[in-house]
Amino acid sequence: MTLRRLLAAVAAPLLGSAALILATLPGASAAAATSCAKASLTLVHPGQLTVATDAPAYPPYFENNKPANGQGFESAVAYAVAGQLGFSSSQVKWTVEPFNNSYTPGPKPFDFDINEISITAARAKAVDFSTPYFNNPQALVTVKGSKFAHVTSLAALRGAVIGVQEGTTSLTAVNSEIKPTKQVQVFNNSNDVVNALRAGIVQVIVVDLATGFYLTSGEIPHGIVVGQFNAPGGDNWGLLLTKDSKLTACVDQAMAKIRSNGTLASITKRWMQSGAGVPVLK
User: pTM for the complete prediction?
Assistant: First the structure.
């Protein structure tokens, strides 16, 4: 073997190993770097990002029932993710998706849904979720003068008539953590839950803490947040996508960026009230 052939034989495996090492380094793969480029994204409607939420859309998640205005916690999060994916505000199109329909199996008419949707193992069998953008405990809401207005434990609520919205994790949380002796009243939507408390049909309602703050700020006369508690396994919210969506990994990359650069923290601080002053009931 000539010296040139010997050197080539030795160099070949070394170059192969070097290439393998380089391929494992962050940003080393051109394919990985371009896989989430805007032009390569698999979208419901080419050239636009279709984002879903329920209607009506309430504060502090959306202001003035207008998701497209960028005002409110979830509206701001959606636009921050869209920006990381390469979309301008004008390229984001909103569509209505009822809460209970969002996590049913099958193709979706949106690229992702943002609607205070808790990540659960059961739902994750039918849809994809992004990494969490918020963790929100459950809140117990009643009115001043109620015999449940000053409870200090979950056990003290077992005799209450409790109202929740259908399809939410609140029902599971109530049954597993409070274990009420009276049938939990389940309503079709959040409006019906609130109206039931106003009318005295139920004595306490259970909603997420941020919603509890909003409701007691004016939606429910003399409404108060009695306390907070955690749903089983916590209550993390994620962006919802079609099961095995090709967009999921790219949405996760966008979420990671707005988390690491402080955008998500800034949005949360602006729109979401701290629950530090609300008693944790056990």
Answer: 0.79
